[in-house]
């Protein structure tokens, strides 16, 4: 659509600007403030420069958390994206069963995040949970509070359970936008199922898949509540992801300086990814229309 | 050539079983999704003795006592009321500010529009963990700590950008000629917006409201940090079940099931727009 230049449109945007400034800019400035100051308590602060940033960059704790975070996001992406596409390809295209699947698949997306954690905490317990009990009965030693591997498997399966439907829903929306003529042409050319997928469905889904990948990456990068409820970051620090570590530091130990420096670097990483997200998305939109 | 004959064979031979394989895949996937929820439901209908002493796939001794506990104790059900109050407040605030902004973004070019639009998006991507402590201090200092409005405003951090993006996506689908015709017919901006434009994007408003509602409802970190007693959300109250005598599993499960209900009730109405909402209006 052709847009006209109109500077008065700023007045329409003003409420949003003020509200977001109040709920984002002011808090963020507090963080910046803490990150360059040190305190002896009693609300007396003095300038510390970049000391906290240097300390955080040298701290093994942060790098370990970042490593675990990248591993977590990598694994869930590698599972959820292909699985989501696969599910979308198998969904009924229209009619009652299509709605039926859509509604049931959306269900996990609407559960409060700590309830998601609670569900899996219970489900995985050897004494009262279906999953834990079954695995135990099969003779598999499964204990997510003690065993590092079991803890990781649990939080990954939980995330797959929670969010694969999102990828599937987006991929399904992409698939539905493909006109029938494409499939008829493929049929005339006697294209194989794989070739239909590779040359028709996948390119047409690219736009929504890009959104799915980046949304999942971003949200998994900020994940806090679900793994915290299930494992509390343990055993040891084995599942302490970035957000869990940050909350521990800021609200648990009240190490304001380091926590603030940590926050800023954390936010910058996400900002960088958001920028890539935005650029890729707008370029795709331009190419399409 | 050999390739092609194989394909012909496979497409003919597999045409019937293909439907079945889809059915199998979908059944397995839905089973995987529903089993953990079923297990929670199952537990919520059992007595604690049955939960702890017997392993049963369905409740032998069906009881609604766990639900009764929650629905009769104000300390419990006020959690739902608190959650619903701040979620509703948040949805109303988000939509009220997002509607005009989304209109501006969808219709006009103005100085800094692209940067502003992107900056809004970055707030959707801001980790709540980063904001937990500053929010706590900000709302304490202005005397809003432990109020519903504090949580509602805090959730605006990610819901306002979301609403702007979703609404902008829907508004772009409305041809601009409609605006121009209305102005020629003598409508003022306000009258046009309320009487003509809003009905045209009613589904978009519904979807944006649904998503604001949903993301405010599922979030816990900020709502827990900003409340202690008066505005404590149900999700945080659930930790109450850990008493001296161990965890009250039945009540915990019942509380969990009750938090799923609101989402499950409205999801049917937005089923066809869920993908669009998650894609921030970009499908």
From TrEMBL, chain A:
CDD domains: TM_PBP2. Pfam families: BPD_transp_1 (PF00528). Gene3D superfamilies: MetI-like (1.10.3720.10). It is a multi-pass membrane protein. The chain crosses the membrane at residues 12-36, 70-89, 101-123, 149-175, 196-218, 259-280. The keyword Transmembrane applies. Residues 66-277 form the ABC transmembrane type-1 domain. The keyword Transport applies. Keywords: Membrane, Transmembrane, Transmembrane helix, Transport. InterPro entries: MetI-like (IPR000515), MetI-like_sf (IPR035906), Sugar_ABC_transporter (IPR052730). It is found in: Cell membrane. Belongs to the binding-protein-dependent transport system permease family. This is ABC transporter permease. It comes from Aliiroseovarius zhejiangensis. The lineage of its organism: Bacteria, Pseudomonadati, Pseudomonadota, Alphaproteobacteria, Rhodobacterales.
UniProtKB/TrEMBL annotation, chain B:
Belongs to the binding-protein-dependent transport system permease family. Its main location: membrane. PROSITE patterns: ABC_TM1. It is found in: Cell membrane. Gene3D superfamilies: MetI-like (1.10.3720.10). The keyword Ion transport does not apply. InterPro entries: BP-dep_ABC_trans_perm (IPR050901), MetI-like (IPR000515), MetI-like_sf (IPR035906). Keywords: Cell membrane, Membrane, Transmembrane, Transmembrane helix, Transport. Residues 80-270 form the ABC transmembrane type-1 domain. Pfam families: BPD_transp_1. The chain crosses the membrane at residues 21-41, 84-105, 117-136, 148-171, 192-218, 249-270. This is Sugar ABC transporter permease. It is a multi-pass membrane protein.
